[in-house]
Amino acid sequence: MAQYQITVDQELLQQLFLGHSQDAGVSKLLESVLNQILQAQVTEQLGAERYERTDSRQGYRNGAYPHQLTTRVGTITLRVPRIRNGQFSTELFARYQRSEQALVLALMEMVINGVSTRKVSQITEELCGTHFSKSTVSELCKQLDPIVEAWNGRPLSDSPFPFVLVDALYLKVREDGRVRSRGVMVGIGVNTDGYREVLGLMTGDTESEADWREFFGWLKQRGLRGVDFITSDDHGGLVRAIRQHFQGVTWQRCQAHFIRNILDATPKVLKDEVYSRVRTLLDAPDLETARLLLSQTLEAYEEKAPRAMRILEAGFDDATAVLSLPERYRKRLRTTNSIERLNEEIRRRERVIRIFPNRQSVIRLLGALLMEQDEKWASGRKYLNMEEYWSWYKNNPKKQNASVTRIM
């Protein structure tokens, strides 16, 4: 390791020991030491002191340029030497470059995990002695864009996805000088090995049929295939888009939303007993039993709660579609609870931000969050054991068509 002779003048020592701010003294000392090291290194590289005449000289100095470096004791200014017809090299900045990269990653992580950019700015000022504005933090986070975009647009053709769950939520986005409510559509798939994957997310003006058609078309362009069962709520545009893009696929109406719709139309004094009845028929072991319980429930409450019973009867077939599957798969596919839990995490961070500056920032933050969740799912336990499903699928006469080959 090279050794350098460093000098410290009396004025600097006085500021270090007698000055009002010890950090300021340390900062000046560090700045002086590092600048002397830079001068020693350029001398070593050129093989000659400043103005020295020697045949072994490797080049000539060409002034210096200022370079600010943020350290724990404040920001210091270094004068980095220039070499005529050459390039000055030093390892002095390598450690600080790694520290800067770590700081940027930490800033991104804080924002992704729901810390406001204002708070991040305050934290970095306390840690580094340098103020990072909200806009600076936002600009740093834009480095996530190519990573998130690559993940969100990745091919889905590596594996079929027999089970798909979709849902949407609304966020506030600033557009054209106004704050507008915009829909964010999210899809989750269960692959042939039984692991969950986030298929992708997309922002839309609302949650219209056109938006859902665009979302499903985008997923299919990326290679989504082998879909046999889709679970979602009863949004009209969503259901029509499913039927258009996934003809012949079984659609399961989310039972949690279905029960909520029924209870909203039920007189208050009857809510508990109606809930118990509906929950029992939805938990029936087979479709025949469910139909018998439906008949009994309609007979008991068609006069007491007519609106609720109309909703129950109209939505019964779609809400019990899951009964066609083997029993072990019903609990996790009868509702959109899996994707609703993701939405709760999104909401926790959205409450901090409140209003997104643009749609790209929505994709950036939510995409980074969903990427992290995707990695946890991939490295965790299987969501479903698919062996029984494949055995049932192959032996089900109604499934024996071209889609069997496509899925397998």
UniProtKB/TrEMBL annotation:
Keywords linked to the UniProt accession: DNA recombination, DNA-binding, Transposable element, Transposition
Name under which the protein is recorded: Mutator family transposase
Gene Ontology terms: biological process: DNA transposition
Function of the protein: Required for the transposition of the insertion element.
InterPro entries noted in UniProt: Transposase_mutator
Coiled coil: none
Keyword Magnesium appears in the UniProt entry: no
Lineage: Bacteria, Bacillati, Bacillota, Bacilli, Bacillales
Any GO molecular function: transposase activity
Stored PANTHER family: TRANSPOSASE FOR INSERTION SEQUENCE ELEMENT IS1081
Organism: Novibacillus thermophilus
